[in-house]
Amino acid sequence: MNASSTSPTGALAGIKVLDLSRVLAGPWATQMLADLGADVVKVERPLAGDDTRHWGPPFLRDDAGNDTREASYFTACNRNKRSITVDMAHPEGRALLQRMAQEADVVVENFKTGGLAQYGLDYDSLKALNPRLVYCSITGFGQDGPYAERAGYDLMVQAMCGLMSITGHADGEPGGGPLKVGVAVIDVFTGLYASNAILAALNARDNARNGTGLGQYIDMALLDVGMAVLANQAAGFLATGQAPGRAGNIHPSLAPYQDFPTLDGNVLLAIGNDGQFARFCAAIGKLAWSQDARFATNTARVRNRAALLELLKPQMLLRSTADWIALLEDKAVPCGPINTIAQAFDDPQVKARGIRKTLPSNAGKGIAAIATVASPMRLSATPVTYRHAPPALGQHTDEVLQEMGLSPSDLAGMRERGAI
Q1: Positive or negative CA dihedral for 201, 204, 208, 211?
Q2: What are 24-35's pLDDT values in tens digits?
Q3: Rounded-to-integer distance, Cα 335 and Cα 220, Å
Q4: Residues 294 and 190 in one domain
Q5: How many domains in the chain?
Q6: Active-site pick, 187, 219, 274, 398
Q7: Is 122 one of the annotated active-site residues of the chain?
């Protein structure tokens, strides 16, 4: 894994990552590292590739507006990477990956527990070749415990960790019942935690003051992450022993902090302190509400939520959504629309921040460019760069392997033998 001829810049320039992961959690972690400048080589199965290349519709469209066979899902988490196709079950393919791991700083994989040992690509095997290696395994349930051998998926973990039990409307209300979050949040959070752990391990290895010079093993589990991101809801349970339930868009510890019907739609009111509530009451000519003992403090408002909503809901119906936003935006009272994703991308703030990025594509199939969502990491001195669109399957196989010293005839022979 020698440096690419187009060496990246950024906070992680010079870091080499061998990405054996697929689907979402692992690729999300490695995309973050790639955005920060690491050279991430994504290893995919010959012919098939990452599962998400086929998870459609929706599919990418060619320049004529027609669907291709390339699923858009893959593009969410594979920007700035180079794709190679190697068959790890083939002896030559396995030897290639072991050689790449010797030159890598990081390996990320999300195979079943112990699944890579048969290929000599597990941590113990690769550590013997490269003691400086930081090796991150991502599984559903971790490397130990009674569920260690189980496959784990985001939806399953959303259910098991309790997240679905607090998401959705309460039983007995219209549409009541547990719901999954609209994005695979456990996978995404696992990717975030994994990238943080990898950076910490690299610092522990290389820190100028007390670095060990050695890599280490990182055991990331979706269930662990699911429990961790329950955040204040878990803290409330641990403090009281009472499991929270579903309450729609109502915040369990703040009021008013929810959506409201308006004259022409819906609006979100997110009042987080007593000063905001007082300013809100003054704006609508109901200052007495903020002086009422039932509503004067947040704790009182939460305890008297039903009485507050009985007064508030009719008031919210008197103005349009746009009028509510116009009334409150200069009074430091958090208030906003409930956008569709299309409306969110059309929002002037989203446009001003450059959230939509369009990258030239070399993927062929009539796809000249691929749109992607910008990284939220804004570093002043070592900014995120957008070097490559999500790659076509095996787009960089020859490039990467020739950097390792293999000749075109070597590659031709390996292809003929099915190793790459």
Answers
A1: negative
A2: 999 999 999 999
A3: 37
A4: no
A5: 2
A6: 187
A7: no
